[in-house]
Amino acid sequence: MADCRRVRLLALLLSLSSCMYFTQGLKAPSNSNDNLPDNADALRNQGGPLQEGKLAAVAGASSPRRGSGWKLAEEEACREDLARLCPKHSWNNNLAVLECLQDRKELLWNYKLNLTTDPKFESVAVEVCKSTITEIKECAAEERGKGYLMSCLVDHRINITEYQCNQYITKMATIVFSDYRLICGFMDKCKDDINALHCGSINTGEKDVHSQGEVIACLEKGLVSEAEDQAGHYVIKDDCKKAIMRVAELSSDDFHLDRHLFFACRDDRERFCENTPAGEGRVYKCLFNHKFEESMSGKCREALSTRQKLIVQDYKVSYSLAKACKQDLRKYRCNVDTTLPRGREAKLSYLLLCLESAVHRGRSVSGECQGEMLDYRRMLMEDYSLSPEIVLHCRGEIDTHCSGLHHKGRTLHCLMRVSRDKGIMDNLCQKALQTLIQETDPGADYRIDRALNEACESVIQTACKHIRNGDPMILSCLMEHLYTDKMVEDCEHRLLELQYFISRDWKLDPILYRKCQNDAARICHTHGWNETSEFMPPGAVFSCLYRHAYRTEEQGRRLSRDCKTEVQRILHQRALDVKLDPDLQRRCMTDLGKWCSEKTEPGQELECLQDHLEDLGSDCRDVVGNLTELESEDIQIEALLIRACEPVIQSHCHEVADNQIDTGDLMECLVLNKHQKEMNEKCIVGVTHFQLIQMKDFRFSYKFKMACKEDVLKLCPNIKKKVDVVICLSTMVRNDTLQEVKDQRVSMKCRRQLRVEELEMSEDIRLDPELYDSCRQDIKDHCQNVAFGNAQVIECLKDNKKHLNQRCHQKLFKLQETEMMDPELDFQLMRVCKQMIRRFCSESDPKNMLLCLKQNKNSELMDPKCKQMITKRQITQNTDYRLNPVLRKACKADIPKFCQQVLSKARDDTELEGQVISCLKLKYADQRLSPDCEDQIRVILQESALDYRLDPQLQLQCSEEIPRLCAEEVAAQEQTGQVEECLKVNLLKLKHEGCKKEVLNILKESKADIFVDPVLHTACALDIKHQCAAIPPGRGRQMSCLMEALQDKRVRLQPECKKRLQDRIDMWSYAAKVAPAEGFSDLAGQVLSSPAKNYILSMMSMCVVLLFLMGLLCGRITKRVTQELKDR
Fold first, then answer.
1. In sequence order, what are the residues at sequence separation of 6 or more whose Cβ sits closer than 8 angstroms to the Cβ of residue 559?
2. What percent of the chain clears pLDDT 90, i.e. is strictly above it?
3. CA 379, CA 369: separation in Å to the nearest integer?
4. Is residue 828 within 8 Å of residue 791, measured between CB atoms?
């Protein structure tokens, strides 16, 4: 073996020490600082005494000028230091004195140097370690007489099982490590570096500035400084670097061998590790665990940090880690990667990554090795200074934002927070942090992150107590309780800081990696992928996985069930915070600052981006659109929304939530149950927001997209907004239905889903963006205190339609026209009358729902609120014939024929205030309408006769007269025709000409049918039954019957009927005076509708005959005169 790897003449030293023990019969002191047994005693007990002759010879050869009883304590040069520094009971033991004084004086140096230069001591080592040398072939082959044999035994001391030999070597190695000049080749290799770094003297006779242990410590610090690229650092030669690391490695077994650390931490060892035995690196680990205790001395903490930094550079500097993981490193070939730079495989980070990769892939790693890995991963997370890349690249960020937070991982979490919240971190620092998180892998065991562990301990004990301690699912459990009552603020911050980095590398979630590694290889082409040799960026792998998570079988390859479940879990977590989605944050950084800087509450940033979708940059718009499209398919990704809606899901949607398979049924269920009592405000806001976002693009509504995608591409190309697509498709459906097309253009499945979308849109005015934009100012002016939802704002606008601006009025009229054609779209009507529809109209066609309700309006079982709503819709219908589809169809020919003058003055999208219906009423009185139209007008007349509000022209013209003359009747709200009767009785008191004309028209209409005069019909109901039972109603026939009965003295009518009839005759007579016929046709109509038409027609006939006779007579006279003139 080469000199550079050996402790050259250690055998001589060990042999001499053995000789001293056995010739003097002395024992080394056994104190708390040195818990090693006496080697001489051990040799006596285990293998018997050595030959006295050999020992004497060795002692004589070693010290020619002193006898075998010579003691260091007797030397004058040592006496003062010995008394001052060493306990008295150790004075008789030269070995104990050496360990106590070490490098204090030149005498000790010469003594130790003499011990290590006599080859005769090697023979003693051969005697003590005879069987061990035979077992270790490398040592057996070493050349004898040069100290190489003992150096080889030191190298292989881990494998020495022979008790005598093991204790012998362990005890005596401390002497060599007390002075770097005694270590084989060390001084030759590091001579220049020692002088350059001013670490001490290399000359034997000179007094060193530092102790010999501190010289090595100085070199180690120089090595660390170079690794951290500190300002003004010195570059140590490669040979010296190897020598330094070799010394650190050889001293890893027992902390006594690291002289600088041993003296720096003597008191701390007593304080924290009193009961920890030396050997196998146990004291090192104990001190590491107490490094950040307040009572730990600064010198010891500094020495411990230096040793930890050496371990980071070479894992073999940790005895326990190298021993525990030796077999696993060989098994998984972690130290034979030829593709890596020379020496990188020795780094702690590479060991951790390689073995973590094996664990994540489900391979077996010994529990002892995993335990050691856990300790060192925790060590790296606790102290950022152990990672040279962090120190080098994050120096500015630490000075600016994180100074004074060194302990317990606080600096690392501070850097994570800076990266997450401020986004101003240097790329190299960001990369260094990401690399450290990958090396420590806290996602596999939260306990590695001490700051997180301490912050979240209470949450874990309450919310996650059902999960085994250290299980990777603990982090997922914490994420599930993020923003809940069980979460505490400090835990929330630490958790999000860590998740920010875990979310950027899918490998850092061990469950996701284990479940999806085969899918990643199969679908995303990551064959041969591992943690240290990446063919694909980690972010790209997860993007690939989630793109395939929601594919149908027709769309191609899909993820396995287990992998898909994990991808969904990650998506649910990312939805909690936009910063947990790396792609979204990267593409939308500018837009977040521009539009959403004030949105700081959980979930608000994504909602803000969705609200400003049209304003976003193209990259950001694409990623937000894709995420929204994904949410429409699986709304459970919106974890905050699902959490807010838990009560209503449990009550109304639990079956859908439990069995949802990529269909969007859960959101549809939430929308349908949006106004249930279990629905809270947060859930309503969330569901409504999602509905509003869906309006921006039809792709955001999964069920609508799947049902109508082909129809949209074929019939409505280039249309993106959902509301426009719905209007486009519904218009085609309506036109095809009206034209009775056999094969409709819109497919059946699309028509069904289109119906669902139309019903949802009717619930909230904001779901109709065009109407909402047109009426925004009117909503502010007239409906400011009205809540959105339940179509309340739309209803408010209907109530105030006379005060709306023209654009809003037109849009509202269009909406009402649609609702009247399809009452199911009238959300308020369907909501208020829901029970009545079930009672009276369960078998009716949905298109005729309002007609059915009107027919049952006066039933005793009718709910008052529903009755009131029906009346409101009747009033609306009577304002314009276009709002009454049945009337419009029945009077299709009559309206242009008789009411063209009204139509020519009308404007599109504005009510005609009942003018067309009033026109048709007059023609009804003249009996000139078609039968179908006449039937519809009769119904309108009967309804408006009972309730004056259903006659818009009467209400408009008599708005002042009714309160003045009929206030009591209005207050009664009996809706039995009393208000109209009041106006008829007070006809002479009416001052407004328009009102008077409307009342006269009512009187004229009542002549045509007694049913349109409810007061008269009620009074004469019994007489009609007795006197006019055989006469069919309509065309004034029953009215004529009653008038004839009134004139017939043989018939006795009911007094009330007789009185009412006489009043009507007087009213008609007055009407004839004040409202003469406006034309011949009007006159003819009045005559034909008059009860005295027979008398009038007789008189007219007599006049005609008379005129005829006069014409004959006058004709003969004029003829005679004309003849006489001709004769002349």
1. 516, 519, 523, 545, 548, 549, 567
2. 23
3. 15
4. yes
